Amino acid sequence: MSTHHFVPTTWHNSIGSHPPALHIASGDTVVTETIDAGGVDKLGVQRQHGPNPMNGPIFVEGAEPGDVLRVSIDTMTPIRDTGWTWGPISALVVDPEAVRDLPPRKQVTWNIDRAALTARLAAPPASLEDFVLPLAPMIGCFGVAPKLGQAISTATSAEHGGNMDYRRFGPGTTVYLPVAVPGALFHLGDCHAVQGDGEIVGTGIETCFEVTVTLTVEKGRTITWPRAEIADDIIAIGNARPLDQALQHATTEMLTWLGEDFGLDKVAASHLLGQVVRYDIGNVFDPAYTVACRVAKKWLKRS
Amino acid sequence: MSTHHFVPTTWHNSIGSHPPALHIASGDTVVTETIDAGGVDKLGVQRQHGPNPMNGPIFVEGAEPGDVLRVSIDTMTPIRDTGWTWGPISALVVDPEAVRDLPPRKQVTWNIDRAALTARLAAPPASLEDFVLPLAPMIGCFGVAPKLGQAISTATSAEHGGNMDYRRFGPGTTVYLPVAVPGALFHLGDCHAVQGDGEIVGTGIETCFEVTVTLTVEKGRTITWPRAEIADDIIAIGNARPLDQALQHATTEMLTWLGEDFGLDKVAASHLLGQVVRYDIGNVFDPAYTVACRVAKKWLKRS
Amino acid sequence: MSTHHFVPTTWHNSIGSHPPALHIASGDTVVTETIDAGGVDKLGVQRQHGPNPMNGPIFVEGAEPGDVLRVSIDTMTPIRDTGWTWGPISALVVDPEAVRDLPPRKQVTWNIDRAALTARLAAPPASLEDFVLPLAPMIGCFGVAPKLGQAISTATSAEHGGNMDYRRFGPGTTVYLPVAVPGALFHLGDCHAVQGDGEIVGTGIETCFEVTVTLTVEKGRTITWPRAEIADDIIAIGNARPLDQALQHATTEMLTWLGEDFGLDKVAASHLLGQVVRYDIGNVFDPAYTVACRVAKKWLKRS
Amino acid sequence: MSTHHFVPTTWHNSIGSHPPALHIASGDTVVTETIDAGGVDKLGVQRQHGPNPMNGPIFVEGAEPGDVLRVSIDTMTPIRDTGWTWGPISALVVDPEAVRDLPPRKQVTWNIDRAALTARLAAPPASLEDFVLPLAPMIGCFGVAPKLGQAISTATSAEHGGNMDYRRFGPGTTVYLPVAVPGALFHLGDCHAVQGDGEIVGTGIETCFEVTVTLTVEKGRTITWPRAEIADDIIAIGNARPLDQALQHATTEMLTWLGEDFGLDKVAASHLLGQVVRYDIGNVFDPAYTVACRVAKKWLKRS
Q1: Pair B75, B144 in one domain
Q2: In this structure, are D75 and D86 located in the same domain?
Q3: Cβ atoms within 10 A of the Cβ of A41, count?
Q4: Which residue in the set D96, D131, D267 is minimally distant from C87, CB to CB?
Q5: Is residue C267 part of a domain?
Q6: I want to staple A202 with a disulfide (CB 3.0 to 4.6 A). Which of A41, A86, B264, D248 is the partner?
Q7: Domain that holds residue B236
């Protein structure tokens, strides 16, 4: 297994069958620095316009349509002392008539303490002077090239992954993506220092990271939607609007997973899910929303 | 403050301006036994048809439209050795075409161990033989009479509360409801021994409980949607379809609350919510779905 | 068959099992004057607060749960020289971020020419000086008492009818409603002189009408959602949010109707609907939206 | 102005910045034969896999991002004696629990009488033996390359057009599309002999057509969503899920259009739309649904 230090010189605003920027073997590790969602790098230089410029694509040898690409998010190290967010909360998440009362949208700066691993507003209002957040790094947008020759905007998400903006996609998480083209063509970028559920201001704390991922091809296993594992849970993802449909995709994928890997037919899986399932709202801001269907591993036995 | 032992002899399938079954003073405590969602009591006797027969209404002296009724859920003690659930998961939570593959709906029995405070399927499939759930009691349906002379089915929910089926509405939780009629007219029932997020099989483990609640009128404070407090968090509730709209109601209510009680204007509240908000899906089964907008108290200072 | 001249003295803001204001035989005709959606009568006197005060309920002898109430809308004659609408269009029907740019809500007056049967703004902006609309009267809100002891706000709609705000519910239309309580308990009000699809300003031209309806009990026929017939089409109604769900209810009801009365099984009905169905959006403003599924009678043969 | 007879040899399953297959001047006319949604041509030969293979792209000289491409659909002549549809109606348009009762999906053949311009089922059930439909040709999928380097599946639609499946996109209709890349890169295909509202079986009658379109660049006019004109009406299109969001896009675009071209500010436009707007449901089957906001020209004066 090799480790590649990948320094991109171009970035993409869509995830698709773009020319590979790096070729790796299955199981290799890639270390790369990401620029922020607006295309600004760690030195404050605008390198590409938004939305969400992607490093990549990375061609993983041996990946074929119908395979799964396993993405281990190994580490995420912040590499800039500032981040930014939008405010106020999005018109999408308040009652329609209440939108009239929202203040104008404005970008604000956060200071990131890379020793303490905390973030705070650079110019907080009095009411938030003591508001210091521990960092909880995550990758907002990553995925593999979709089928049918599509190139999908990094503003949105679908079966291939994309701009899911789900806060559990951070270090220690393993994500599984459905390969649709030879080499999988993995892209990543749009890293957040912190983000609440739903990404309801339209951003996490947007900044630059050094990210380490290990990419491995899994043969003989086909999935429809992204899946993930964290220490205690397995997770199936659905991306769509409205939230109801995203939840349907995630739940359907989980039902399939419980049947394939854990020996639970639809009746047994239903008895289990009905009483123990947890749903997370990844984002309720992007063109496609993201819902995660999550089950604790303590309830499951691999079959 | 008095404690009332309330033994209902009639039950309602709607929450509305029905004749009061009990009058209490503000701050009084009520102990009452609930029948299950199908109207069967702790002895197995059918007392009322479904859905979700309500004990009540309880008239709280002094409550007037525009007030808030504070409901402390003090204790919930299971009083029957069995509960039941539906299976498989609802057609609402899988992809529409996948509904064709769902097995037929069927009610199953769970055994409740009232000493160990656990539940398990009475006749589990082999794959769930070791599946033993700790009880996590909650009230599925409760609320106050709505405005405009309405009587709203206990199958659904709205501003007045109702069938929210949110798993955090259990012992230790304090709920705030908007009073719309004199006396508030509080109803409760439909208790669950356990329930996953979303109530995706259409039930929690439906059984009978002895419930103790303390009902207190709060003057000079008006709310639109139910609110709640648990040990670590404050919570605003929205009830509607689709989930997107329920989330809008909950977030709008939270934004108001942060302004009124915690000194955060819309800009400050947005900076906070954007990075720390948590959303729970109460239910995604009833005619109105329920979303909870939740914020940890550690980020807040009462103003 | 008798004709009753019904002069209400009280009005209801919910449709429910209120005490009957009139008893009639099946097949009788009722002539009654309605007040406007805000509760103002033809003389400008406020008679009841809003929303949508209802004349009724009318108890129809012989109607039992499981029957159908046939409502022939015979005539609608405007009885006031003014109507009113809201403006601008609702926050519900523009892009969320565009809500910020909507002007404030304001009620405006229309002059109704009862001889010419036209309406025009009392104080039109220059760009609308020539804007003269032919009247197209319709009943915005009408229905029968719902099941389970419910009383449902006249702001919304459900299986029982209610505030459907569908512009084809005017003279010449026959509507079929599902009876849920003895006597059916028919209510009506909220008449509009004109209304576009969707009721997107939140009102039609709200005014007072003399309405003539003939109410007939149909035994031996059970429906779930309101149905209607106009000269050329049959129509099934769905009421819910989002529009997608309203459309599902309407289409499911139509599928049933085509099977029961027109000899089309699900396969044949699908071949027909797929190529000839028409959908109307009744309203996209009220808490429950309304979608009509419409099929031309020329394609159908009663079986 | 020239006329080009365009005979494609490759087809695309996405609309994007593919290499141009034809270059034309603004104002030129193109005559081309389309293959059906499944990729079968007029001779029954499979030329490309589905979904909805596109002829094109056609590069229109002078078109630049920010311009409008005017597409006049001049003629559509059926060139095959058969078409096909799916049945039964989609799981998307019936109540979720009713999906269980839908028969299996099956493709059926229709005979197209090209002299009489009618279609009928090749093997009709007895109940549809007399069911003969006049042809009403339309283009199901057409559009221009989207922004951000995207290539969007022909199964779906967005600002660029795409698989809108709206039955009024037939001969005599002029469509306006927002140009996002140099040359506009126009694609078309997926023609239907007939289609009901909503495309609720997932197809119109899918067949092959000779289509004549005239493509003209309009400078100095920027639009966000597709617009159209038919003899009596102007139309704005929105593509999204759920229907509510598609309707918001369409209405917002219409509001802009009424302001720019017809001198109606938001207040005046609201008074007009509120009473005269018509909504059509293009499709309620594709990943993005399509809603048309339609206003009769008789109410409008170009300013």
Answers
A1: yes
A2: no
A3: 18
A4: D267
A5: yes
A6: A86
A7: 227-299
Q: Which residues of C touch A101 (CB under 8 A)?
A: none
pLDDT reported for residue D53: 98
How many separate domains does chain B show?
Answer: 2
Average pLDDT of every residue of chain C: 98
Q: Could you say which of D151, D155, D245 has the minimum Cβ distance to residue A151?
A: D151
Q: Which of B150, B153, B241 sits opposite C245 (nearest CB)?
A: B241
Task: Decide if B274 and A89 are in contact by the 8 Å CB cutoff.
Answer: yes
For residues A65 and A189, membership in a common domain is answered with: yes
Domain co-membership, C274 together with C170: no
Contact C112, C163 (CB under 8 A): no
pLDDT at res. D303: 81
Tell me how many residue pairs between chain A and chain D have CB atoms under 8 A apart: 50
- Residues A72 and A153 occupy one common structural domain: yes
Q: ipTM score here?
A: 0.98
Judge whether D151 is closer than 8 Å to chain A, CB to CB: yes
Q: Does A278 touch chain B (CB under 8 A)?
A: yes
Say which of D90, D96, D242 has its CB closest to residue B91.
D96
Question: In CATH, what number is assigned to the domain containing residue A268?
Answer: 3.10.28.20
Residues A94-126 as b/e (b if ≥16 CB within 10 A, e otherwise) read bbbebbbebeeeeebebebeeeeebbbbeebee
> Is D100 inside a domain boundary?
no
Asked if residue D198 and residue D58 are part of one domain, the reply reads: yes
Q: List chain D residues with CB under 8 Å of B242.
A: 242
Interchain contact, B196 vs A277, CB within 8 Å: yes
Name, in order, each residue with C-beta under 8 angstroms of B185's C-beta and a sequence gap of 6 or more: B15, B16, B17, B18, B20, B56, B57, B58, B59, B144, B145
Q: pLDDT tens for residues D267-287? A: 999 999 999 999 999 999 999
Last-in-domain residue among A102, A117, A134: A134
Residues of D in contact with C204 (CB under 8 A): 274-275
| Contact criterion met (CB < 8 Å) for D102 and B100 | yes
Sheet with D138-144, strands from edge to edge, namely: D22-24, D55-60, D186-192, D138-144, D161-163, D157-158
Q: Do D245 and A241 touch (CB under 8 A)?
A: yes
Per residue in D22-33, pLDDT (tens digit) is: 999 999 999 999
Asked whether residue B124 is domain-assigned, the answer is no
CA distance C164 to chain A (A): 21
Candidates D233, D270, D272, D290: best to mutate against C (most CBs of C within 10 A) is D270
Sequence-distant (≥ 6) Cβ neighbours of residue C234 within 8 angstroms: C227, C228, C254, C257, C294, C295, C297, C300
Query: Is D254 found in the same domain as D174?
Result: yes
Strands C22-24 and C54-60: parallel
Q: How far is CA C41 from the centre of its chain?
A: 19
pLDDT digits (tens, 9 = 90+) for D28-79: 999 999 999 999 999 999 999 999 999 999 999 999 999 999 999 999 999 9
Same domain, C119 and C264: no
Residues of chain B with pLDDT under 70: none
Q: What is the mean pLDDT of residues C154-172?
A: 98
Q: Do A247 and B243 touch (CB under 8 A)?
A: yes
Q: What is the mean pLDDT of residues D153-158?
A: 98
Determine the residue type at A79.
Answer: I
Taking contacts as CB-CB distances below 8 angstroms, the residues of chain C near B245 are 241-242
